[in-house]
Design goal:
single chain, alpha+beta, 9 helices, disordered N terminus
Length: 221
């Protein structure tokens, strides 16, 4: 009953919304963000996905991370935030393995920040299994557990999927944000790391409105 009443109110408001003058969009496609040539499947189709494509050795990704932390707290339940490592060389692929190993071991939230700091502040390379094993051990993960997971089929599969996803996104650098597998935002298009998140918010609202319109249309049918 409540759902029916809510939809009835929305239906009654549509003619007035259409009659009202429409303000120009704050962010413009092709200027502040780009539309992907082909949409990319998201992890959870029931939610609006925002995927951050990053590399632990990227200083711009490192500077964006604290902003991401605060921004995530503002997200509504219908938004699904994901991280996806980029890799266009062997070092980045190794760091992607470390990311997915940490995720599988349940220590990603604990090690995500230290991995960024190790590469960008401490100038460590961490570009091979032995160095990463020592790093993980220094943060309480048994070396044997790390090596087993680092070389596991599950992690290998996740790395391959992330690489394929980044290629489908058409990533040209890091960091970049992809909203709902449809729109790509970079620091160059948005203007700054903080503006990347503002554009993402704009696109999330755009996707949310599109879903609501489909729901109303389906209700009418």
């Amino acid at each position: 009953m409540k759902r029916f009443l809510a939809l009835a109110v929305l239906l009654l408001s549509v003619p007035f919304a259409l009659a009202a003058p429409q303000a120009a969009p704050k962010y413009v496609e092709g200027t502040h963000y780009v539309r992907l040539a082909q949409p990319v499947r998201t992890a959870d189709p029931a939610r609006i996905e925002v995927s951050k494509v990053f590399w632990y050795g990227c200083i711009h990704c490192f500077h964006l991370e604290p902003l991401i932390g605060d921004w995530k707290k503002t997200l509504k339940p219908d938004v699904d935030f994901q991280r996806s490592p980029a890799m266009w060389n062997q070092t980045m692929a190794v760091h992607a393995q470390a990311f997915y190993a940490a995720q599988a071991l349940g220590v990603l939230e604990k090690l995500h920040g230290p991995l960024f700091a190790a590469l960008n502040e401490e100038r460590k390379k961490l570009d091979n299994e032995d160095e990463l094993a020592a790093f993980f051990a220094g943060h309480g993960v048994k070396e044997a557990d790390f090596r087993k997971m680092f070389n596991s089929f599950a992690v290998e599969s996740s790395v391959k999927q992330a690489d394929a996803r980044a290629r489908s996104y058409g990533i040209t650098g890091t960091p970049e944000l992809v909203v709902n597998g449809t729109y790509r935002i970079s620091g160059r298009t948005a203007g700054s790391p903080a503006d990347m998140l503002k554009v993402a918010d704009f696109l999330v609202e755009k996707e949310r409105a599109a879903r609501l319109e489909l729901e109303i249309t389906g209700f009418n049918l």
